[in-house]
Amino acid sequence: MELSKRIQAMQESPIRKLVPLAEQAKKKGLSVIHMNIGQPDVKTPKAFKQAINAFDVDVIAYSFSQGEPALLMAIADYYQKSGIAFAPEDILVTNGGSEALIFAIYATCDAGDEILIPEPFYTNYNGFSKPANVQAVPITTKSEEAFCLPKKEEIESLITERTKAILFSNPGNPTGAVYTQEELMMLADIAKKHDLYLIADEVYREFVYDGLSFTSMASIPGVEDRVVIVDSISKRFSACGARIGSLASKNQVLIASVLKLCQARLCVPTLEQVGAIELYKLGLDYFQEVKEEYDWRRNIVYEGVNQIAGAMCKKPRGAFYVVVDLPVEDADDFARWMLADFSYEGATLMVAPAAGFYATKGLGANQIRLAYVLEEDQLRRGLKVLEEALKAYPARKA
Amino acid sequence: MELSKRIQAMQESPIRKLVPLAEQAKKKGLSVIHMNIGQPDVKTPKAFKQAINAFDVDVIAYSFSQGEPALLMAIADYYQKSGIAFAPEDILVTNGGSEALIFAIYATCDAGDEILIPEPFYTNYNGFSKPANVQAVPITTKSEEAFCLPKKEEIESLITERTKAILFSNPGNPTGAVYTQEELMMLADIAKKHDLYLIADEVYREFVYDGLSFTSMASIPGVEDRVVIVDSISKRFSACGARIGSLASKNQVLIASVLKLCQARLCVPTLEQVGAIELYKLGLDYFQEVKEEYDWRRNIVYEGVNQIAGAMCKKPRGAFYVVVDLPVEDADDFARWMLADFSYEGATLMVAPAAGFYATKGLGANQIRLAYVLEEDQLRRGLKVLEEALKAYPARKA
Question: What is the DSSP letter of A17?
Fold first, then answer.
């Protein structure tokens, strides 16, 4: 009655495992400020639900395995407007960015193979590679260097004959780092030299600040057939619960192969595809307002964190997360303690302990990730709770 | 630039690979009668879309990884009414029955492990086990025996130390076989003796005919902790495009482990869960009318097939498929030829060649699967096309 070793080896989500403590805090009457998860409070554009409500058929039938043709067209149009040259036939619609990541891993790696991933990284990269028996090999990046990539030689030293791909999120979750064109060209050089795929999770593409212009991995010449772009409407249009993602590549053999995985699971839900078509038609100007709102929030969090004694973060350049160094030894214990034993003016704070974002044991023990997806007053209140909690924590009862 | 061996080893869907030929036939102005796929023409109950249309929120947010609590309750209620004792905490909502099957395989099998599956079986069992590096080992069942299970000794002779589970659909796709209580008790005995899991795909549970009463694997005593039930609203409520499935087990360690897989992909779409709640509230009387309709169609196809010279099928007892023996050597070639080169009174017929449902090479070469999910006149027209095609096929140009 043993379960498989691969499922036993999987960790519980380091974020979601704190949920019971948060539930208990709420039962005690506390307000729990959620800076732990990237669930934006920005409204989903009304076009999404309007299209779904207007969709009137007798039978909710299977969609196409590759996705609704009109959605593939709409995504291709969006890419063109973003300066990325994907045609509808280069794209497959997936169950969220999650399934696109799973498919990219299975298409490029066999059991026992390795994928290089800059750490700290989105925890679920582990959750997708472990069941596939693929080893996530971390490229360590550092808080004090704003999580930029290390030198080429350092990355190359991690490559073995089992290395099949480099996987990264850009802009970065949890780091907020945005890779420069030079960094991407370095990755391209490495991929060509060592015959690797480049799996770029660009779901935060629009969220870059400080006037930075975003460069997609798909725009770097010479590696078009090595690049797989993972995408999602979740953050882009604040539609996390729609679970519409996509996988895109100019490598037609790869697309035809991933289509076999798509066919096995038949299709993605029809209704959300109908809604997503309208979201992708919104055009790039939609993002300007949203971006300004996140930029504002980013500055509040960045300044707020650095005003707290002992807390430190570099200014994130993209996405809506920041990794914060805290003056504690065990941020996981601190996060649990805040939920279980601390409150300030009727509120407590939920954060994501950062150790779960590292593959290297011991790293990130004193770090947390904060998501700035809440309105200003909530963020300010959360930062105040953090400040007061850090004052009270050293004197806690063990 | 090699892709993974596991994705290269996957076959294209034997059903979906005929789609381009069907598209060409349609372009020629032919009407293509689809008896190839289990997409019912029965209307999705209006309650589904009404609930979704009425669901009014500003942000389409993440749902719970295990599923919406109200949906878990509604599914548990449905199970209780069906005489199956699952509580909400025994259930996880999945992206269709497909994801429930994937999760069941990953939870019970490591790379290199084996799963016994009565063949012919739903092709995608291969599509799910191959990427997992799990070997589908066929238990051959025979058309002339109405696809009942072979003797216990025959099944046991296939078990090795790598065998971890027996997976089966009941009622059977593509066979239409409904396992008796005795057959299920035999499987239970084997599972106990050889320490195996029993993964029962019961998505056609309500579709059993001839006054037969359906026995769920979950009702067999003594193996409660070995049984994993895969379920879906796709066929039950004619909502294939909703992609709402579930996995249920009394084994709480298994459920907690599969929850880790659920957490990695975050959640199932929110809107379809809202709709599915209302479907599960419809109650068992809903099925009576649908079942009578399918029973009627079954009789048309069963009688029609056996009136065609050289064609033969035993009467299926459940689901809405039948495997038909044809007087041809290569049913795949015959199916392609019908789409590419044959028509009768402006119509041609699309069927599923059955070889793709067998893991044993060579079996099923002369068989097709017909789905009786269309209205009577369409079915009669399809059978007529089949009859005329079988007359014309021997004289075709090679």
Answer: G
